[in-house]
TrEMBL record:
It comes from the Bacteria. It comes from Streptomyces sp. R41. Pfam families: FCD, GntR. This is FadR/GntR family transcriptional regulator. Gene3D superfamilies: GntR ligand-binding domain-like, Winged helix-like DNA-binding domain superfamily/Winged helix DNA-binding domain.
Amino acid sequence: MAVTDEAIEKIKGMIVSGSLRPGDRLPKESELAAELGLSRNSLREAVRALSLIRILDVRQGDGTYVTSLDPQLLLEALSFVVDFHRDDTVLEFLAVRRILEPAATAMASSRISEQQLDALTAQLDALGAAPSVEELVACDLEFHRGIVQSSGNSVLCSLLDGLSGPTTRARIWRGLTQEDAVSRTLHEHRAILAALRDRDAEAARSWATVHIASVEQWLRSTL
């Protein structure tokens, strides 16, 4: 592993220094191994590892390329790790979401378009006053994704997208067991939209915090 780690660090160094740029094709395996002072086996293992986390793209019969290094692509690895969360870490995921999502919502207040706000409003209207819990949670995911995308920060958007999965089951369970969960969620969504329409960043931040904290508070009470 130590030799493979060294190979990974050397390839990483080439990318960070600019010797290899997004979209560049790596030199032939034999040439790159000689250039970096590595065995071909250790280089091969490093390439395999870096392809798993979307740093490199191995194209059969064509060669190995540096990916676009787009944040959304790179953060796919986070989603993979998140899928292995334990139930007792859901509160930690919610806490991170409570820190990041209100900030993204506040950022969106000055950037989200009227058309996007109209689309989110139509989405809520289509749910009606008494949606099923599953319909509400699915809408909740799309609702917040749409707002976060409007923040203009692709890294923040990718992070929150990856973190949303572990909290889905908790939100469904809350909807099934807490009497006013559905109506409260709809009310909080409307309040967030109203703050965004008013271009009020602090109100948008506050309502997003209340919205996430309510799920967190309920979950704490059940543990």
